[in-house]
Amino acid sequence: ICVSTKRNKIQIYRLDKVNINLIHEISVQDSLISIAMDEHGIIGCSETEYFSYDPPNSNDRRSIGSFTSIFKLDDPNITTCFTNISPGQYLLNGPNVGVTTSLQGMSQRAPIMFVNPPMNFVYSHPYLIVLVRDYIHIYSYLDDQLKQEIPLKYCRTLLTMQQENIKNIIVTNKDNIYLLVPLSLEEQIDQLLNSYRLQEALTLAESSCSSIKQRSTNRLVLSTKKRIAFIEFSAMNVIRALSLFDDINLDFHEIMTQIPNFSPLTSPWSNIDENTKNQYSQWLNAFCDYMTKKSAEFSRQPVRKKNRLKIGKSNITF
Q1: What letter would DSSP give residue 111?
Q2: How far apart are CA 76 and CA 99, in angstroms?
Q3: Which terminus has fewer CB within 10 Å in the chain: N or C?
Q4: CB atoms within 10 A of CB 276
Q5: How far apart are CA 185 and CA 33, in angstroms?
Q6: How much is the pLDDT for 270?
Q7: Which residues of the chain have pLDDT under 70?
């Protein structure tokens, strides 16, 4: 399948080794502004309307697929634009909102509320780069919140350029061409953890998985959970920390080796206020209960495995 536009018409062709055959021609009311195609189908927009073409699933050459009008805009001040989020999923610009939709015009996701009306936007996982008047706004698609605002006057175009696994963003104004290079997921997670935005860091790591099942084995998710667990551990949020230790099945010997580095109290006991003493006592009690449970589990392991672990244990010093 290939697609072309001619004034206010969309022409859909079927290609084979010998012929190019026009199989469908669709007329729209206004001039076409943009059109795109992926392996799932075609999406496009005119000045007032979004539409899609869902190709036939079968190899029946007589089938022409289905054309859908997704929605129309009544306000001429709203710019029609769209971007691909994932195969078969798109974000369309509406009245101060971004609407996620499939080719069939269905969505199970709440709209994104924009701070300013977009002139254009593109998606670079997990961020939405939005061109507004005199600024570039960067939203997180994970929580729909505005994360960054970059002043840039007279912006004209916003394009994506795929380079290996990184999607760079090209921005132009009347004088210059700019390249926005996103940080790697690892660098973004580091920044979030360093600023104690722990849940955001975990959500970002999990977004790298194509399915929920992959989260239990994904290296980035496991390492992020481990780092969050030790951050919570040092902050005396021991219940949360121990829950994460269990979740990633962390060897309790590794926890023991970290105790000197993560002991939360550095002042003499007599100089600590009563509230902190109580909190520290709860921290110790919960941790001791956890270690007792892990010790019991360890004692039930096969002898061969226990002996191997004891060798490592003999090198631990406190």
Answers
A1: P
A2: 18
A3: C
A4: 15
A5: 33
A6: 57
A7: 57-64, 164-165, 259-273, 298, 301-318
Q: Radius of gyration (Cα) for the chain, nearest Å?
A: 27
Q: Cis ω on the peptide bond leading into residue 151 (within 30° of 0)?
A: no
Contact yes or no for 287/238 (Cβ under 8 A): yes
69 within 8 A of 83, measured Cβ to Cβ: no
SS3 130: strand
Residues forming a β-bridge with 136: 131, 150
Give CA separation, 268 vs 110, 265, 271, 273, 283, in Å. Answer: 52, 8, 6, 11, 17
Reduced to 3 states, what is the DSSP secondary structure of residue 274?
helix
* Architecture field, domain 2-182: 7 Propeller (2.130)
- DSSP labels, 150-201: EE-TTEEEEEEEEETTEEEEEEEESS-EEEE-PPPHHHHHHHHHHTT-HHHH
pLDDT (tens digit per residue) in 19-51: 888 888 888 888 888 888 888 888 999 888 998
**Residue 302, burial from CB neighbour count under 10 angstroms (0-12, 13-18, 19+):** exposed
Nearest Cα residue to 284 out of 242, 313, 314, 243:
242
Residue 237 pLDDT: 84
Residues whose CB falls within 8 Å of the CB of residue 227, separated by 6 or more in sequence, listed in order: 193
**What does the domain layout of the chain look like in residue ranges?**
2-182, 186-313
Residue 33, token pair as written in the block: 């502004």
What distances in angstroms separate CA 157 from CA 6, 127, 136, one per listed residue? 23, 18, 11
